Every structure is written in C-alpha cells, then in structure tokens.
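Minutes, project check-in
Item: structure for the 340-residue chain
Input as provided by the requester:
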Amino acid sequence: MRLALIYSDFMREMTLSFRERTCRAAQIKERALQEGFHKVGIVSAAPLMEEGARLAEWLRRGFHGEMRWMERDPTQRTDPCQLFPAARSVVVVALNYYTPHEHADDPAIGKISRYAWGDDYHDVVGEKLKSLLAWIKKQWPEAEGKTCVDIQPMMDKAWAVRAGLGWIGKHSNLITRDFGSWVFIGELLLNLELAADTEREADHCGSCTLCLDACPTGAITESYVVDSNRCISYATIELRAPELPAAVAGNLDQWLYGCDTCQDVCPWNRFEQPTDEVRFEPRPGNISPNLAEIIALTPEAYAARFRRSAVKRAKLTGLQRNAHALARQVAASAGNDNGD
C-alpha cells in the first residue's frame, strides 16, 4: 500500500512537471512571436552528434577555406553546454528578412546580398532575444540564459532543423515552408527544462538541382555540400587575401558583397513574404552600390556609410578589392566589345 502511494505521488509530480514544462514552452513561444520572430521551436540542449560528424568531415576536406576559427574546439560547436554549462533547453527562432527590391542591371553597379541591405541582423535578432530573455526572467526568477546570433560557436542551421523550423536545402541554407530561405536564425540557451518539439520538417528539395546548376563557380560540389574555396559569398566577405581567386573573380556576375544566386533560383523562395521588420529595409545605396564610389571610400566615409551594417564584415580593404575586381571585368568586357 505504501509503495503504491509513493508511486502515485511520484507519477503526480512527473505529470505536474510535464504540464509545467509544456506550459512554460507554450508561453515562451507565444512571447517569442510577440517579440517579432516569425518562427520558433524548442529542443533539448543535447549534443549534435550526427551534425557534428558531418561538420568534422567538411572540415577534413578543407571546405572551410581560411576560416581557421572553425577548426578550434569543434565540440563547443556541437554541445551547447560547452558554451553555457547550465543549458537544458534551446529556444530556436527565425526572423524573415525578405524585402521586395531588386538589384540594378548595370555593370558599373555592384550587388550586395539581400541579407545585408538593412541594419545588421546581429543587432536586430540579438535585441529581440535579449528582450525575450528579460521577459522569461520576470516570469521565472530562477531562469538564466545566453543569447546566440551567429557570432557564438553554435550550429544555427542544425538547431533550426532540430526545432522543426525547416530543412537544409541542397545549397546548405535553411529552407522554411513559410518564408523560403530568407530568414535569420538565433538561439536562446536556457537553464529551464522545457517541453521539446519532436516533429521535424521533411526535406522537400526532391530531385531539384537548380541551385547546383546555377552556382556561377560550381561551389556546391554535391547536394548539401558547399566548398567555401569556390564560393563567391565566402570570397567576397570572409577571405582576407589581397586578390580574389581567379575562378571567383572571373564569375562574379556583379556581386560585390555576398551572393544570392543559389537562393534566387530556389522554387521555395516563390513563397517569400515581405518582412514586417522595418530595420531590414534597404539603406540608401546598399542594394546596388556604385563601384567607383566604393573604390573612392576613405576609412572615415566607409565607417560612416556602413555603421551597424553587416557589410562591415568584409572590411574596407576587402570591399575595395571586390570593387576593383568587378571594375576590371567591366573594362575587359568593354575592350572586347570595342575589338568586335
């Protein structure tokens, strides 16, 4: 009889605990949407074993180029407890950044990747996550957390997949049913035990290979695998070499900063929706900047023009290197036309 009572009390506590975890998770999701996020999911802060193995193989093949920082302490990238030891749950959010504007079709004009048209997403997403964390602490004073927006060693896309926000496309970007691939991802690590989402989005790429076929440099070497050494986005943003690789420089297609080609051709991006986050509206000259203006920028003018913009990631030297490469393409094309 006593054992039965003990078991009954234990089950009651477990049931209440499950109810509490479920209730907390629902409240946090609702609040995340109120903060302006467009998708949210919650998963346990368990290590990403399968995803970590794929990352290790990608690194082994040297596909990370000169991003040596990715080699450091790979376990920290796969285990959130290495970053925040008290982590029990991971709240994963997605923020739509699509704005319905187009690049100019003019060889004297460069193209900037859509994600960098407006304010720096690190600031926008980070601000919303910090506000969400502050609200959580008010509801549950014992709560502690850490916000993550791309800078921290988190496998953002892998966590988004686990949380059911979307699937990894063959171009290696997260694709959502609602907004295509035009989303930023962020995480909030919490010391709270929360009910986890268990349903994952199926891979809906099917037999489509449009992104592989469209890549100007063949950087998508196989489905779901990108070789950064051949990628225009990597070369124009992350690479610190004084000159772009020849294979990239000869195929820039006006890209000054980043490249959206693989996303532009994706059929799922037909479902894009304009974002309601006004800070992602393009800044003046950020969609298609004049190459001559970029080449003429002084350090002071550069800092003022791209303050709190993701474009600063490329540094002034990188941006001007890219502009010079594009200008040489224009000059060579003009020379060929005159020769004809």
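Outcome recorded: DSSP finds 13 helices and ten strands in the chain.
No further action items on this chain.
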